[in-house]
Amino acid sequence: MHSLWEKQSFLSPDVVIVGAGITGLSAAATLKELSPDMKVTVLERGVLPTGASTKNAGFACFGSVSELLNDIDTLGPEGMVNLVEKRWDGLQKTCQRLGRSAIDIQVKSGYELILEEGSGIVEKIDNVNQLLNPFFQEDVFKLSDAKIDSFGLGQTHHLIENHLEGQLDTGRLIATLWKYCAELGVQIHTGCKVDNIIEEENGVSILCGNVKFLAEKVGVCTNAFTSKLLKEELDIAPGRGIVMSIVPDKSLPFEGTFHYEEGYYYFRDYYGKLLFGGGRNLALKEEETTEFGVNKKIREKLLLDIENIILPNQSYEIEMEWTGIMAFGQNKAPIVQKVSDRIAIGVRLGGMGVAIGSLVGEEVAELIVNS
Ligand SMILES: Cc1cc2nc3c(=O)[nH]c(=O)nc-3n(C[C@H](O)[C@H](O)[C@H](O)COP(=O)(O)OP(=O)(O)OC[C@H]3O[C@@H](n4cnc5c(N)ncnc54)[C@H](O)[C@@H]3O)c2cc1C
């Protein structure tokens, strides 16, 4: 039973956004930027966001050569370029909205390790550069084999450098975006799991336990968890990813962001520490889960890779480890669409949602405003 005051001030916003990850918060921020008087409420099931946005490795990246070649296979050359442009524009949007120093973005170059001799990837650097040249007006990728030894990398035949790739502080990104939304007047309720969304004649009911919100419009930004909430058939499969924070005995011989095996493995420096994760490809079916937890087989492989590839001959301590849940489909393009006149979704952000999240949020907001 609610009071008149609760009904007026909390339970009847103009728009409810479900999910307080980068996409949901960006959608809420855009709505308030477009319409400052609009009453916007974000509902988040966790005490903290509990998906991918506060669990990732903080790569400000838009794809390594092998990943982009794979995107050409699934989306075609134009689709690949379009996705890269969106990731780049999304990063610029986040920096411009929140400020570069607030999210601690640092552009120290990104590198792809080629572990397999004769993989054919190096030969295709020029093709990928040519496709991206009209957008960036310069070559993005180049071979940097001379750095392999100084970085102390084992088992690495080639190193491809992308001087535009950076890294950021994921926690600060979400905390700053949260603060920005609050300053714009967005109400954010945590510990508020949406159980059901029901369209009524006079609006949309959003049910969270025994609390019912009634809004004009709803934006669903629940990424990997969307199928649990909506009845629509959507091509979304969850994908769990692990990250470890590692303290090496000696100082790290490299700085920057690094990927190998089509981005399935990723590591970076973070103020003298190593953040390392990935390995989902070792157990794709097992990792198609929304349960947080660590797969022992993957963990063991990561430890082997630290010893053989990343920090050969160095001792280290594992300081922390955690997992987060991503969302994948047949290709890497996010799903942004209206599912009815009153409900829009922006989901399936894949493994590069830090880059694309603010743009997907903006698109969700535009669908809501223009419907
Ligand atoms: C281990 C890992 C490493 C990654 N590394 C990178 C990287 O380095 N660079 C990069 O660009 N991307 C990376 N990503 C991907 C990136 O983090 C995601 O693509 C992005 O954060 C997705 O944002 P989102 O807001 O769409 O989804 P999420 O962050 O998952 O947000 C969805 C939110 O919805 C909430 N929710 C779900 N169901 C409900 C409900 N019923 N009611 C209320 N709330 C609900 C969840 O709790 C969650 O907070 C990584 C992801 C992981 C897991």
TrEMBL record:
Q: Which residues form the FAD dependent oxidoreductase domain?
A: 14-367
Q: Which organism is it from?
A: Ekhidna lutea
The highest taxon in the source lineage is Bacteria
Designated name of the protein: Glycine/D-amino acid oxidase
The cellular component terms of Gene Ontology attached to this UniProt record, alphabetical and capped at eight, are: cytoplasm
Q: Which Pfam families match?
A: DAO
InterPro entries, per the entry: FAD-dep_OxRdtase, FAD/NAD-bd_sf
PANTHER family attached here?
FAD DEPENDENT OXIDOREDUCTASE DOMAIN-CONTAINING PROTEIN, SARCOSINE DEHYDROGENASE-RELATED
Phylogenetic placement of the source organism: Bacteria, Pseudomonadati, Bacteroidota, Cytophagia, Cytophagales
